[in-house]
Amino acid sequence: MRCPYCRHPDSRVVDSREGEDGKIIRRRRVCQKCERRFTTVEESVMAVVKRSGATEPFSRAKVAQGVMKACQGRPVDADDVQKLAQNVEDEIRSRGVAEIPANEVGVAVLEPLRQLDEVAYLRFASVYRSFESLEDFESAIRQLREQHAANHSG
Fold it and tell me: Which residues pair with 39 in a beta bridge?
């Protein structure tokens, strides 16, 4: 880490503290040349690998935006969408990987969205799973009905 005062390339860490549930680390450093102190903030970045092979930083806001589109016109609270996006991020981060395929982000959204609103779930699934026919919708609806029957029996 370069010293912000004298630009010397070497510094020594004198203190480290975690913040934001371990997502960031604040480090107090001292320059090996001018001996001035400065603070750095390190953040772990999780990358999403798109189908094209390109990568971009994971964005909770982008997850929430996609879910909001699926929930348009539905009786879904914006706070619930934010909680869903946070839960999806937490679930993905708990895997302990630096990169995640974009389709796995979509998979992580499906179940919490189904529990939040089934119509929004069908909308999201139709785009995410590239529904191409009425049969694709019928199959997804049949699965929802089977889950209802399993959840409400016994």
Answer: 28
Query: Is residue 43 exposed (0-12), middle (13-18) or buried (19+ Cβ within 10 Å)?
Result: exposed
Write the pLDDT tens digit of every residue in 80-98.
Answer: 999 999 999 989 988 888 8
CB 86 within 8 A of CB 94: no
The total number of residues written for the chain in this structure:
154
Three-state secondary structure readout of 9-37? CCEEEEEEEEECCCCEEEEEEEECCCCCE
E strand intervals along 1-150: 11-19, 24-31, 37-43, 47-49, 55-57, 99-101
Model confidence at 26: pLDDT above 90 = yes
Bridge partners for 48 per DSSP: 56, 100
